[in-house]
Amino acid sequence: MDKLNAMYTFVRVVELGSLSAAARSLQLSQPAVSQQIVSLEQQLGTLLLFRTTRSVTATEAGQRYYQQIKPILAAVVEVEDALHGLSQRLQGNLRVHAPSGFGQAHIAPLAVAFQQLHPELRIELLLDDRLADVSAEGIDVAIRFGELHAPGTVARRLGSMQRMLVAAPRYLATQGTPQSPQELSQHPHVRFSGAAIDDTLTLIGPQGATLIPLRPVFRANNSFALLAALEGGLGIGGAQRPLIGRQLAQGSLVRVLEEYHYPPMALHAVYPAARFIPAKVRAWVDYLARSLESVDGMEVGNASGEKPEA
C-alpha cells in the first residue's frame, strides 16, 4: 500500500462524506478507494470510518487522525510544488465556493479564464448562499461577503461592494418616488431572506446613518430572484451594484434616494489556515484580487492583507 496516497484518499472521504464521491474526485474506482481505507485501518490497527449504505463518517479516532494528517499533507504538496517548479504550472483540484448571484455573474467567468490559463487544474465551482464549512467540505477557497466568523481559516480582503436602493420606473410612476428615507416605510420592500429579521434598514447619507422600518412584501435567498421582483415592479429594494449594470443601462431599474446607500459590504477570500498555503490557492486569490478591480461597483483598495480567524 502507498501510505501517502491512502492518507490523501482518507482525507477526501472524510471531507466529502462518501466513498463514491471521493472516488470521483480522485478519479479512482470505488473498490480501489475502499481497499485503500481498509489497508490504512489495518496498518493503524483502528477503525477510522463508520460505513452505512447512505453515508460515511469518521470515528473518534478517524476524526483525530484527519485533523493531524491534513496539515502534513498540505505541507507535502507545498514542498512538491517548490521542488518541481509548479508555482507557474498549477495542477490538481481547486474547489471554490461563492455566493450564487455574485458567483454566477463574476466568479464563474473568472474561474473559466483561470482554468484556461492553467489547463492542468481541475476546478469545481459551488454556488449557493449558505455559509459553507471550508474545512469539513474540502473547500480550497470560499468567497464571502460581510463579517467573518470562521475559526481555523485565513481571510484575505478583496475589497468591498457597493449596494444601493433601486426600483422599476413603472413602479415609481404609479406609486411615487420617495424623497426621504422615512418615506420608504410607506412603500413595499423587496429584501434578501438572510437580512435582519427585525425589518429595519440602515442607510448612510449626508447626515450619517439612518434607521428605517420597512414593510417587506417579497423575500428571496437569491440575488437574481430579487432583481426579477424589482424589475417586475413589486416595490423598492437594495441591489448589489456589480449585478445591475445591465438593468441600469437599459433603464429597467433606476436608483432611488441617490444620496443614500447601504453600508459597504466587505468581500473576502477565505481558505483553511495552514503553515503552507498551496500555490494554486495563492495564485487563484491573487488572480481574483487583480480581476475584480475592473468590476463596476467593487472598491478594491486595501485588498492585500491576510487576517487569520481565531
UniProtKB/TrEMBL annotation:
One Pfam family it belongs to: LysR_substrate
InterPro entries reported in the protein's UniProt record: LysR-type_TF_proteobact-type, LysR_HTH_N, LysR_subst-bd, WH-like_DNA-bd_sf, WH_DNA-bd_sf
HTH lysR-type domain span: 1-59
SUPFAM superfamilies per record: Periplasmic binding protein-like II, Winged helix' DNA-binding domain
Keywords: DNA-binding, Repressor, Transcription, Transcription regulation
One GO-annotated biological process of the protein: DNA-templated transcription
Keyword Oxidoreductase: no
Keyword Ribonucleoprotein: no
Family stated for the protein in its record: Belongs to the LysR transcriptional regulatory family.
UniProt-listed PANTHER family: HTH-TYPE TRANSCRIPTIONAL ACTIVATOR TTDR-RELATED, HTH-TYPE TRANSCRIPTIONAL REGULATOR
Protein's recorded name: LysR substrate binding domain protein
Organism, as annotated: Serratia odorifera DSM 4582
